[in-house]
Amino acid sequence: MNRKFIDTVNEICKTSENVPLSEKSSFRIGGAAKLCAFPSNEDEVCRTVALCKESGVKYAVLGNMTNVLAGDDGYDGVVIFTTALSDHEFQGTEVKARCGASVTALASSAAKKNLGGLEFAYGIPGSLGGAIFMNAGAYGGEMKEVVKSVRAYDVERGEVREYSADECGFDYRMSRFRNSRDVILSAVLKLKEGDAEKIAETMAKNMLLRKEKQPLDKPSAGSTFKRPQGAFAGELIERAGLKGYTVGGAQVSEKHAGFVVNTGCASEKDVKELISHIKSRVLQTSGILLEEEIIYLD
Fold first, then answer.
1. How many CA atoms lie within 13 A of 24 on its CB side?
2. Which residues are catalytic?
């Protein structure tokens, strides 16, 4: 990445150089990104991604970095943040929203319009793009249940395409976007008519459960592992005697063993070593190999 490239990106959208990713990540971990880009619309996202591809510069498109572990050595490329693309509009029982929209904000806005379906997402700290990317879910609901269509930039073809829900390849914590380089730009969500008061009550109940069961007072990347078939990761980790176990500044949460938290000084190395130890111990004690839900950025 040279100065000419950086200047060209800066002509497309707002940028910042040498940004500590620990300041952007919910995990509060990560060295500096060589360049961060902050596009304000879909065109700027596409142009920035296309320039990176054309120039052979590695890049990552992120929302709120709530499910990401950044490397201690930083990121020698461009991190493209979509947080400015947060607008949304309702049309009947549907809502069209940009990739950077907060799913919690969408759930709240929908409730005020007597629209349900996103109650499960209330309290999830991520963006819509990230939630679709990993088919986020909680309390019996998943994004695949409300997604009608997704607009994404096909990096290989250099064009914007629209995918129906069936074409999104949704599965447990999975979508086609995890297996491709397509960049999610926006989506149409299909909601359902309901009673604003009842919807709000459900969201409040879900938020209370989050506060009671999850270590929201400490930096983390959310649930560290996917739920294995027929079991729960947190229970398996606790049975392995690892609740509260630490490696450096990384700790298996004493509140919920399914979360690895940053006690204040954790590094990427600490987290990876702890995850490796957890997987090894759980495999030994239960015969189940846990699979990470968090995404590594390095």
1. 28
2. 173, 223, 293
